């Protein structure tokens, strides 16, 4: 099992960052990798069990299921159901935010665990790392802009 972990101290409040990152359907609004997203079957984007179907700018798609979403804990967890261009299995990720009380900033952490073949390991780890890092950066830009 491979684990990728990314953390960041973001120059924005916890409430502002959570306002952006809690939207399970909002990736294209703040992440440069993704072009469009929709929640399947008309469910709400904060409904546990909803499935987002999103595309990158090259037309590749990923389907992910929301497993948990907690406004109290500022945490969400999801799993990949289908990702033809990302050679992973048993992928589960979690994102959590916490306040940095001395500076009114936000600490974010995002991690995933998955199985990947040795030949794809380096590329997949880099792609997942970049995805999480750019999500935090994009959330900050969205909060400030």
Structure write-up:
With 145 residues, the chain is an alpha+beta fold. The protein has one domain: START domain (Alpha-D-Glucose-1,6-Bisphosphate, Chain A, domain 4, 2-Layer Sandwich), CATH 3.30.530.20. Helices cover 25% and strands 43% of the residues. It has three helices and seven strands; from the N terminus they run E-H-H-E-E-E-E-E-E-H. It has helices spanning 14-21, 27-30, 121-144; strands spanning 2-10, 34-39, 51-56, 61-70, 75-82, 89-100, 105-115. The chain has a seven-stranded antiparallel sheet with strand order 1-7-6-5-4-3-2. Strand 6 (89-100) and strand 7 form a beta hairpin. Helix 1 packs across helix 3. The termini are far apart. 28% of the residues are buried.
Largest sheet: 7 strands, antiparallel
Fold-level CATH name: Alpha-D-Glucose-1,6-Bisphosphate, Chain A, domain 4
CATH class: Alpha Beta
Show unreliable segments: none
Beta-strand level of the residues, as a percent range? Answer: 35-45%
Estimated helix fraction: 10-25%
Order of helices and strands: EHHEEEEEEH
Q: What's the CATH architecture name?
A: 2-Layer Sandwich
CATH superfamily: START domain
Structural class per helix/strand content? Answer: alpha+beta
Give the strand line-up of the largest sheet: 1-7-6-5-4-3-2
Using only C-alpha atoms, the radius of gyration works out to 15 Å
When the domains are counted, the total is 1
| Mean pLDDT rating | 96
Q: Please state the overall shape, judged from the principal axes of the Cα atoms.
A: globular
Tally of helical segments: 3
């Amino acid at each position: 099992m491979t684990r990728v972990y990314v953390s960041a101290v973001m120059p924005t409040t916890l409430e502002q960052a959570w306002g952006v990152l809690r939207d399970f359907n909002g990736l294209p609004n703040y992440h440069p990798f993704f072009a469009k997203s929709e929640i399947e079957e008309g469910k709400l984007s904060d409904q546990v069990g909803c499935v987002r179907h999103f595309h990158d700018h090259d037309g590749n798609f990923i389907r992910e299921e929301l497993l948990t979403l907690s406004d109290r804990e500022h945490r969400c967890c999801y799993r990949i159901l289908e990702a033809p261009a990302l050679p992973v299995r048993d992928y589960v990720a979690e994102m959590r935010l916490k306040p940095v009380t001395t500076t009114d900033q936000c600490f974010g952490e995002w991690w995933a665990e998955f199985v990947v073949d040795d030949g794809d390991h380096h590329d997949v780890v880099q792609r997942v790392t970049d995805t999480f890092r750019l999500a935090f950066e994009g959330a900050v830009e969205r909060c400030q802009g």
